[in-house]
């Protein structure tokens, strides 16, 4: 039930991380979250505000406190996925059955329709890859129930409960459900289901008031979560989004929804459309099927960004309602119309199978043939039982038909998961052994990490180590690292990496940052004291790092030029003045003083490092370079740069250039021993930044190697680094002030006798931090492009930094107002006339 990709790279580590923080009484901010961050806000998209996960945390904490279980580790959270998923699925089916039953469908038919909804491929796909997505499937039936309660009875209590849970749980799926609510109401008003319903004007009043109250109740989660989303950065999706495009089909081989055979049989039965509830769900189902084939709709459901097919559980719910409503009135049907519907449905299955066999890739034909044969067999079984019941009208046959529907869903789901999830995505390879292997969390790696932690006295020291492409290795292996993989995090850090310092991460991505490009200046500034790698890649160790420990396969280097956590300075530079300077110049400015975003007056001047590319010799290697285009004839070809004879003081080169594959393909880039990858042009995870800066240890030649292809390569620049500024900064005598960091509060006492103007902390600049200096509220400044700057006073500075989620005080006020409003509205409408719901 766990995918080897996002399941192990994000879902399980985030659960472990949040539980560890919450169980220690730390609810908002952590230095161990990447380079530091407000995880309550930034992980609200995942689990930090997930109701299901919070209940799980409470139960696990009670069990741990009572001594019934050991402290939960990563393996515990991996194993818990199955149990939690079973319970969640049971709740999804029960709530859906309850919603269908309220709409006048008898319990057995309602349960069968709910099973069609719950036992959908989307549920299992989401659990495996992105488990938190499945929570939305639980709130959707509650939303429908609450909506129907207002329409039929004028009672908003269930609507308020549903929306409060959705707003609190996940802002993204609350947005999807809001779109669904508009669609549902439109169809619902066009096709009334009961004889007496609340007037539409009064419905709108209750929907608006109930929604506003729900927003207030959930603001304590919703506002920080939305701020975290807005404070993230995703480049605009550039590709054209077609209005209609068929990329799969929902009868045999969709990754998102496979419609059950009974649904198709019902949709082809004209007589059923005379029944109001069935007609409503059937029309809604067909409409959502059409939307499934619209990338534009997928974009709209994804905030009008790149098309993402995460909303199809809405279609599964409508299909479940259609099946439930069809079963409800099945006793009224005779066998003749069902024979015609079976013939029409079979013809559609046959035609789609024929067409698919002609256009599908040959390698996929065996898998498709298995799926086709299975689906046809289940269709024949459903058609046979359907017509048999319509002929004999026996209760036992009706029971067998419902049982066949549920079993068919189970069979389809299991076969789908086997052929796609297990065999194609390697889910079957996720095991206890894999979780404890060197590919994920090996014992040898843990041995080195623990050895470092035992010897290192600084609690803020970072280790640059990442297992393969798993950017959340620091969370998995319990150390302060330099990498993070998350859909949402502080955009200041993204801009720091992409734009301001142009730090290569080893892999281009909008949802990851990793390492510090092996650049010694940045390691010193950001408390990174150790650099750990497999022995074969140790040649790229940053300047000033010396071997400290090793095992059979790994080696750790220690920083001999560390800088203090608290740095003070009277040298002030400004981002505006450094705009046209190189990344190396910016590093020197940060080492020599502080770089501020807001300009307060004239700043210090940074001496520009000379671009020496004009004095270097450049030649092609298995390539032709002309007019900014590099045509590489074979893999590993490219360009060779021979720098001018450099000073003995030069330790490293910084090589900078713009590079893009002319045909939009992704590619691997290698400069001497350093490797990185660039995304394809159509990738939704592309940063849109095509300029790279690579640090290379001093060498006679710099070799830029690329795969065979044609590239746009221009703006070559070459800088030499002697690290004089780093040595000067590291040599400055600076007694660290008294400092205490307790959960979300940082206290510092600093006596400013040298007339320093600013204190700089390697804490990322982020809304939520509140500053007091000598009990006076002060404004935090963005310093060094993405970090925290504090204006100093002469003499004693008693500094207090407290982090609370953005808009926390406002959220608490809204919570109280929301609860009072809910009590008032529910009491006011409790005596309203009960409208018919049959």
Layout of helices and strands, plus pairs?
Layout: H1 6-23, H2 39-42, H3 51-65, H4 74-102, H5 107-118, H6 121-129, H7 135-153, H8 157-169, H9 171-190, H10 200-230, H11 261-267, H12 276-292, H13 295-301, H14 313-328, H15 335-359, H16 365-392, H17 395-425, H18 432-435, H19 443-455, E1 462-464, H20 473-476, E2 484-485, H21 491-500, E3 512-513, H22 520-525, E4 528-534, E5 545-550, E6 554-559, E7 567-569, E8 572-574, H23 583-592, E9 594-596, E10 617-621, E11 623-626, E12 629-632, E13 637-642, E14 652-661, E15 667-671, E16 674-678, E17 691-697, E18 702-706, E19 709-721, H24 724-731, E20 738-742, E21 745-752, E22 758-764, E23 769-773, E24 776-778, E25 781-783, E26 787-791, E27 795-803, H25 808-829
Parallel strand pairs: 1-4, 8-9
Antiparallel strand pairs: 2-3, 4-6, 5-6, 7-22, 10-13, 11-12, 12-19, 13-18, 14-17, 14-19, 15-16, 15-18, 20-21, 21-27, 22-26, 23-24, 23-27, 25-26
Helix pairs in contact: 4-5, 4-7, 5-14, 5-17, 6-17, 7-8, 7-9, 8-9, 8-10, 10-25, 11-15, 12-14, 15-16, 16-17
Pfam families: YfhO
Protein name: YfhO family protein
Organism: Bacillus badius
């Amino acid at each position: 039930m766990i995918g080897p990709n996002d399941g192990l790279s994000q879902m399980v580590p985030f659960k472990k991380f949040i539980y560890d923080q919450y169980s220690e009484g730390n609810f908002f901010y952590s230095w161990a979250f990447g380079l530091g961050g407000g995880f309550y806000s930034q992980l609200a998209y995942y689990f930090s505000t997930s109701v299901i996960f919070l209940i799980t945390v409470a139960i696990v904490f009670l069990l741990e406190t009572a001594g019934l279980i050991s402290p939960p580790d990563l393996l515990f959270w991996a194993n818990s996925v199955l149990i939690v998923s079973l319970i969640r699925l049971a709740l999804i089916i029960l709530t859906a059955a309850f919603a269908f039953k309220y709409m006048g469908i008898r319990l057995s038919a309602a349960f069968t329709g709910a099973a069609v909804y719950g036992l959908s491929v989307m549920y299992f796909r989401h659990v495996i890859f992105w488990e938190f997505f499945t929570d939305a499937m639980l709130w959707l039936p509650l939303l429908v129930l609450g909506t129907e309660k207002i329409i039929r009875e004028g009672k908003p209590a269930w609507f308020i409960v549903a929306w409060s849970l959705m707003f609190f749980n996940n802002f993204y799926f609350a947005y999807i459900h809001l779109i669904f609510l508009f669609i549902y109401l439109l169809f619902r008003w066009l096709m009334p289901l009961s004889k007496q319903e609340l007037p539409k004007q009064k419905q709108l009043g209750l929907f608006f008031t109930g929604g506003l109250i729900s927003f207030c109740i959930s603001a304590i989660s919703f506002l920080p979560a939305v701020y975290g989303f807005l404070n993230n950065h995703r480049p605009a999706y550039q590709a054209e989004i077609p209005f209609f495009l068929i990329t799969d089909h929902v009868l045999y081989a969709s990754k998102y929804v496979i419609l059950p055979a009974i649904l198709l049989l019902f949709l082809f039965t004209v007589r059923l459309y005379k029944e109001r509830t069935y007609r409503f769900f059937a029309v809604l189902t067909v409409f959502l099927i059409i939307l499934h084939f619209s990338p534009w709709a997928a974009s709209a459901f994804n905030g009008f960004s790149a098309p993402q097919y995460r909303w199809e559980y809405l279609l599964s719910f409508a299909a479940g309602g259609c099946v439930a409503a069809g079963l409800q009135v099945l006793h009224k049907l005779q066998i003749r119309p069902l024979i015609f519907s079976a013939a029409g449905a079979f013809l559609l299955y046959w035609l789609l199978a024929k067409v698919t066999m002609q256009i599908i890739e040959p390698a996929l034909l065996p898998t498709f043939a298995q799926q086709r044969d299975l689906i046809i067999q289940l269709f024949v079984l459903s058609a046979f039982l359907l017509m048999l019941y319509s002929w004999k009208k026996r209760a036992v046959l009706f029971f067998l038909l419902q049982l066949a529907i549920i079993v068919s869903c189970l069979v389809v789901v299991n076969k789908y998961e086997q052929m796609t999830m297990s065999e194609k995505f390697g889910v079957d390879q996720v095991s206890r052994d894999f979780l404890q292997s060197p590919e994920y969390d090996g014992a040898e790696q843990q041995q080195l990490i623990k050895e470092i932690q035992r010897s290192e006295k600084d609690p803020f020291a970072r280790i640059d180590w990442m297992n393969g492409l798993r950017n959340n290795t620091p969370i998995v292996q319990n150390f302060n690292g330099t990498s993070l993989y998350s859909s949402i995090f502080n955009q200041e850090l993204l801009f720091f990496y992409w734009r301001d310092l142009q730090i290569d991460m080893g892999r281009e991505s909008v949802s990851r940052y990793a390492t510090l490009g092996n650049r010694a200046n940045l390691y010193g500034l950001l408390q990174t004291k150790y650099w750990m790698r497999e022995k074969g890649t140790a040649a790229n160790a940053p300047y000033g790092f010396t071997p400290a420990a090793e095992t059979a396969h790994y080696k750790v280097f220690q920083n001999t030029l560390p800088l203090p956590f608290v740095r003070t300075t009277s040298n002030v530079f400004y981002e505006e003045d450094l705009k046209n300077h190189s990344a190396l110049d910016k590093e020197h400015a940060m080492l020599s003083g502080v770089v501020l975003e807001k300009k307060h007056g004239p700043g210090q001047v940074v001496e520009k490092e000379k671009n020496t590319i004009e004095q270097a010799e450049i030649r092609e290697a298995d390539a032709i370079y002309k007019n900014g285009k590099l045509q590489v004839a074979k893999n590993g070809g490219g360009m060779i740069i021979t720098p001018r004879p450099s000073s003995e003081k030069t330790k490293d080169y910084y090589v900078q250039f713009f590079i893009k594959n002319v045909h939009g393909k992704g590619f691997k880039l290698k400069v001497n021993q350093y490797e990185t990858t660039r995304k394809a042009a159509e990738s939704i995870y592309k940063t849109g930044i095509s300029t790279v800066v690579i640090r290379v240890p001093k060498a006679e030649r710099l070799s830029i190697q690329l795969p065979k292809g044609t590239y746009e390569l221009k703006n070559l620049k070459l800088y030499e680094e002697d690290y004089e500024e780093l040595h000067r900064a590291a040599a400055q005598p600076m007694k660290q002030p008294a400092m205490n960091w307790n959960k979300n509060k940082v206290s510092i006492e600093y006596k400013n006798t040298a007339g320093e103007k600013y204190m700089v902390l390697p804490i990322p600049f982020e809304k939520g931090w509140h500053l007091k200096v000598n009990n006076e509220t002060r404004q935090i400044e963005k310093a060094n492009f993405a970090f925290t700057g504090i204006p100093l006073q002469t003499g004693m500075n008693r500094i207090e930094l407290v982090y609370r989620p953005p808009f926390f005080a406002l959220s608490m006020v809204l919570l109280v107002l929301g609860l009072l409003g809910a009590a008032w509205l529910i009491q006011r409408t409790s005596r309203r006339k009960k409208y018919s719901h049959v």
